[in-house]
Amino acid sequence: MLATSKPFRHCKEAELINFSQTNALLECSAENELSVDIKVLLSQFEKKQIFKNGIKLKKATELFGVLNVVLFTPDDLYLLKAGSSDRRRFIDFTLSQILPRYFMLIKEYSKVLENKSKILRAYYEKPSLLTILPEYNQKIAELSAEIISYRLLFIKELNELAGKIHSNISGEKEELILYYKTINDPTVQNISYQIETQYQNELRSGICLVGTHRDDFTAGINGKEVKTFASQGQTRTAALALKLAEREIIKKNIGGTPIMLLDDVLSDLDDKRQQYIIEKISEGQVFLSACHLDEKLQKNAKVFNI
User: Residue 299 above 80 pLDDT?
Assistant: First the structure.
C-alpha cells in the first residue's frame, strides 16, 4: 500500500479497515538516497488520501517509484502457469517502478482501450460512434509500439539474469529461456495495418483484437515449455528465478536495493530452494511472513509474533 497505493490482493480498500473502526492509517519513514515519509489514510466514507512528506498527493500515481518493493507470494510460484494477464501485470509493475514514462503509457493505454471497447459494444445502437474509431485505433498503435519496445528490453534483461539464477538453483542442469509473444514487426505502421485487417472481426466480436493487452511471455526449460511440460518443482524454481531477477533489475536501475516482501512463501519450497532464497536476500531489507518460525531465519532477523 505504501509503495503503490494499492493492496496486493484484489479487494475493496474499505475491507482493510478494522470492523470496529471507520478509518485506517498506514505510515512509514523510508531512506535510500533521500529520506521520505509516506502516509496512506483509508476511510469507510471518503476517498483514500496519500501524503508524501506531509504534502497531500493529487494522484495516487505520484507514489510510484518513491518506495521500491519486490513482492513474492505463493501465487507467484505459479506465475508461469497462470493466465497471461498475471504475467503482463508482473512486467508492468516492475517497469512502472523504474520508468515513470512507462507507467503513464500503461495508464493512457488502459483508458484508450476501455473507450474503444465501449464503442465496439455500443455501435449497433449508435452507428455514428464508428466515425471516431480510427482515432482510437491510431492511438492504440502508437502506444502499443512504445510499450512493446520497453517490454522487449525488459524481457531481454530478465532472461539473462533469471537464466543465471535458475542455472545456479538447478545445479547448472537446466537452462531457462524467456520468450516475449507479440505482433510480428511491432511498429506503428504494422500495428495499424493489423488493426485494419481485424476491423470486421472486432465489430462482430465487440472485442479489441490487436494491441499490447494481447501480449504474453512464456518460458522454456531445456527447450520445453514450462506451462505445458514443467514439473511443480521446475515451475517454482523458474518463478523464484524471475522474482530474484526482478529485484536485481530494480536495484540496477534505481541505484539501491528494493525492499523485498515475502508472504509465507518459504513453506511452499523445499529445503534447497529455501536456503537459496535466504542466501540471496541477505542484502537489503526484507519483510517475511511465515506460519512457523524457522531457525535458519532467526540469526539476523527481528521477530514479531502475531
Answer: no
Q: Residue 295: CB partners within 8 Å, gap ≥ 6?
A: none
Place of cell 525488459: 154
Confidence grade of residue 125 (pLDDT, cut at 50, 70, 90): confident
Per the DSSP assignment, residues forming a β-bridge with 179 are 218
211 backbone φψ class: left, alpha, beta (φ>0; ψ -120 to 50)? left
Query: Model confidence over 186-211: pLDDT tens digits?
Result: 999 999 999 999 999 999 999 999 99
Q: Which three cell numbers stand for residue 28?
A: 512509514
Domains parsed from the chain with CATH numbers? 1-63 (no CATH), 77-255 (1.20.1050.90)
Task: Give the residue among 100, 99, 210 at the shortest CA–CA distance from 157.
Answer: 99
Cell 506465475 sits on residue: 79
Mean pLDDT score, 56-83: 90
> Which grid cell is 185?
514487426
- The upper half-sphere exposure of residue 30, i.e. CA atoms within 13 Å in the direction of its Cβ, equals 24
pLDDT of 220 > 90? The answer is yes
SS3 content of the chain, % helix, strand, coil (to 5): 55, 15, 30
Across 235-275, the runs of DSSP E, i.e. the strands, are 259-263
